[in-house]
Amino acid sequence: MPHPDIAFSIVFLIALGAMVGAKLWLASRQIRFVANHRNQVPPQFSNTIALTAHQRAADYTIARTRFTMVDVVISAIVLIGFTLLGGLQALDLVITSRVGNGYIGQIVLVASVVVITGLIDLPLSYIRHFVIEERFGFNRRTPYLFFVDQIKSALLGAAIGIPLLFVVLWLMNEAGNLWWLWTWVFWIAFQLLAIVLYPSFIAPLFNKFEPLRNEALTSRIEALLRRCGFAVKGLYVMDGSRRSAHGNAYFTGFGAAKRIVFFDTLLDRLSGEEIEAVLAHELGHFKRRHMIKGLGIMSVISLAALALLGWLSQHAWFYEGLGVQPSPAGGNSGLALVLFFLVVPVFLFFMTPLGSLRSRRHEFEADAFAAGQTDPKDLVNALVKLYEDNASTLTPDPIYTAFYYSHPPASQRIDRLLNLKRPSPI
Ligand SMILES: [Zn+2]
After folding, report:
1. Contact 63, 137 (CB under 8 A)
2. pLDDT score for 337
3. Burial class (CB in 10 A: 0-12, 13-18, 19+), 329
4. What is the pTM of this model?
5. How far is the CA of 274 from the centre of ligand 1 (A)?
6. From the CA of 9, how far away is ligand 1's center (Å)?
7. Is 409's pLDDT higher than 90?
8. 362: CA distance to ligand 1 center in Å?
């Protein structure tokens, strides 16, 4: 029987190896499947999608998926570097020798890891936008805007993250054995506050929001909202085209403060009927309470995660198994947090298909709701346009889809929409 720390190192390495292997295998399946179907538009779409558009979507999907494979390998190397190769241990020693391991030392440690991983991600993110998205005509960012965005996000992250981190570390040190429960209560309150404040205070830092001025469209949307018994506080248009040619629409906020936000790129591309159908789909998510259910699941998972962290942080093998010596005098909370957030995604990865399945079910439900409120053909037309514009592949690999796709493939959504029985009007 090996020491518990060595046993934990082995479990971690096996899980990491399995995750990297699974991610690379899934990506290579997706690439092969899309490449094999590149030369023919699926019969269902032969009247609506041109072969050139189908091939562009295939090339875009393949380029993006290849790039994620690079990302998977780099992330795994960084993770091993921080843990088993002693990166975090070295960082902790340097910080502790300069500022000690009190609150400041622990906050500096967490912040250093965030900054280092952010800097490693920066060139990858740059390539994603300025090489891949650019090649397919999606990128609208300038390098200047890209760097301004990075700096703004970093400042915002520090302004929110450092006080948040301080409270969590304080609870870990002062709130006794049930600190993880108090931290959870605090975390849920923070999440709700973020949902309330995001639309008015955070989103405007990155985009401009203007009231929707198109009168015909406004009255069409208001009629839909009345029909569904739905109150919102405003209809807004966001300048999504500043960054990307991808289109979207979403709801934000909750309670009486809900807003609907349309990307300008979506309004440019879809007809009034199609926009109404897309919005009816989004309303379907609300009516079926998908957001509330999502919050419920998120809060259960975060409670379980914090309880697990509470247990792990008391065992030396958790630190030692991941290449770090905890200080016997205490002050290891920052270390425990960093290790936990580095390592937990490896184990959670294998839950991905469950989340994806739930999300795809919700998409079908929202489609069915939309089909009851508007002509299903409008949503079908909108979907075809959006798939074409976003160069989403019509022929994804079935196993890759089952594992990752939050939305069912276009063919399945359209099949269902066209075969749904519309409820007869009352
Ligand atoms: Zn949806």
Report:
1. no
2. 95
3. exposed
4. 0.90
5. 14
6. 40
7. yes
8. 7
The shares of helix, strand and coil residues in the chain, as percent rounded to the nearest 5, are 75, 5, 20
Separation CA 57–CA 393 (nearest Å):
5
Ligand 1 center from residue 122 Cα (angstroms): 30
As a whole number of angstroms, the distance between CA 207 and CA 197 comes to 15
Calculated CA dihedral for residues 236, 239, 244, 249, nearest 10 degrees: 0
259: phi then psi, degrees, rounded to nearest 5:
-125, 155
Contacts (Cβ under 8 Å, ≥6 apart) of 108: 95, 99
Is residue 423 over pLDDT 80?
no
Residue 424 in this model has a pLDDT that exceeds 60: no
Taking residue 136's Cβ as centre, other Cβ atoms within 10 Å add up to 16
User: Using CA atoms, how far apart are residues 222 and 235, in angstroms rounded to an integer?
Assistant: 9
Report how far residue 191's alpha carbon sits from residue 268's, in angstroms, rounded to the nearest whole number.
Answer: 33
Furthest CA-CA distance within the chain? 75
What are the catalytic residues?
282, 367
CA of residue 150 to ligand 1 center, whole Å: 28
pLDDT tens for residues 300-332? Answer: 999 999 999 999 999 999 999 999 999 888 889
Render 45-72 in DSSP notation, one character per residue: GTTTS-HHHHHHHHHHHHHHHHHHHHHH
Nearest residue to 124 via CA among 69, 169, 167: 69
CA angle in degrees (0–180, nearest 5) for 361-362-363: 90
Cα-to-centroid distance, 158 and ligand 1 (Å): 32
Dist CA 130 CA 128 (whole Å):
6
Averaged pLDDT for residues 289-297: 91
User: Could you tell me the distance, in angstroms and rounded to a whole number, from the CA of residue 366 to the centre of ligand 1?
Assistant: 6
